[in-house]
Amino acid sequence: MKEVKKIVIIGGVACGPKAASRARRLLPDAEITIIEQGEIISYGSCGIPLYLAGMLPDIDSLMTTASGMKRSIEYFDQEKAVHVMNKTRATAIDREKKEVVIYQKEKGTESRISYDQLVLAVGADPIVPDVPGIQLNGVSVLHDPQQAESIRTAIKEEGIKQIAIIGGGAIGLEIAISLIGKGREVVLVERSDQLMPGIFDPEMADLIKRELEDNGVNVLLGEGLKSLKGDTQNQVKKFTTANGIYDTDMVIIATGVRPNVELARDCGLEIGETGAIKVNEYMQTSDPDIFAGGDCVENVHLVSGQKVYVPLASTSNKHGRVIGSNLAGKKETFPGILGTSAIQAGEYNAGKTGLTEKEALKLGYPVISTIVSGHDTAHYHPMHGKAILKLIAHQETGKLLGAQVTGMGEVIKRLDVYSAAIYMGADLEQISHFDTGYAPPFSTPIDIGIHGANALLNLKEGLVKGVSVPEVKQMLADKADFIMLDVRSAKEAKLRPLKGGVVVNIPITELRARYGEIPPHRKIIAFCPLGIRSYEAATLLQGKGYQNVSFMKGGTSALPELTDAD
Known about the structure:
566 residues, alpha/beta, FAD/NAD(P)-binding domain, Enolase-like, domain 1, 4 domains, 5-stranded parallel sheet, 30 strands
């Protein structure tokens, strides 16, 4: 009789169910068991902010397939022939006997289950600040749908009006936007001096912060949580930071996660340099019969080659597929990640792939970067939206190292193109020739993503000098001696004047005739909304012999506070 392979998977949210489903398709006779300590399985945790915002009818929406079937225990049993043991915690792994010790909460019993191959898909645990008052009523750690249900119910039934979100990462931003409105005040607290540190460079994070504030969110930067205070019923009523004491009715903790490595460490598996489980390209741990994937493992960054910990749902699902293939005897590899991620903050879409400029400089790369502003479709199309892109490349080779995007337009399409370009090792010149699709509803004739590569090529080749947003901000703060050359029309300049030092307005249409009005010995930086007219102005003056002339990369769209524009 043919021996039936026993596969045990610990963890039933993203990576685990994906591994089980893939393995089942390749191994129709295998015995596959998922052990999940929670009550529900295989849910879309990234959709929780949508549920909080009332955009989903009920929490079950996060647990259904595209065809409307609920991914319940019965679904996995009948559709996948996968046995699911929920409300069951794996407490230990006996590698010598190839058994998992499990504790079934409802029965209160401990038993063992044997395996031929084991998968650790145990995810990550939320980081909870160790501050006084963290146990008060009204303080929640949003980590699963059940907690989301509790928060939504409390807001509805208790009339919550003041909500504090602790943590300015992706989840914190999305929660803040989902809860603003209906008479509620939402404050977002981030201990760093910018939102989403490590994901966006400061000038891009500032644009997202502005969008949050325009939507009514009060953003507090550089203010770490110090304590929470409650009333006589132990209901949270205030939170304290280094800068002050604030009133609140509810506190939601969204300060990140750490990999769950307890089981792996206790059974002697190797833990990587990031603190997550170490795996090879086949997603095997230091024990070849034990695989691991999802938020509990570290990955290789495809640009730097370094080990990184970047927990993402998309990565977890990809891990699951690779693990499922290899459980069936294939030799499928997972090469690594670029940390590509996307969020929606208010009306802004935003995302990042590869390295930030800060990361690239820290790693010692010779860096060249630019910001470009424009539209995602033809400007005359009624549905066009603003798009602001930042590209980071290797100064010598021109290889794209990273990209960040934001704006009301369809910027994630461009992000995905950049991600593919970095993955394939493309340089700026190659990207400038990408044959992307064009029609007025979808792009400009030269897509803004291609325009970004062209703009950075121009800077790399020294055709013109560009000044970054942080440099301009610093020069204005230092009251540096330079002329702000405003090349917008007189009407534009009057409607939204530049805020700064010495401003000279000469429209680009008049500059060729009037350039002599500009002192040639002064430092000159040209400005316009998108950076296109100011780039032309810089090249024109350069051609007339001006030595110290440049333009602000990205235009005032990348630094809105330079004008009175909203």
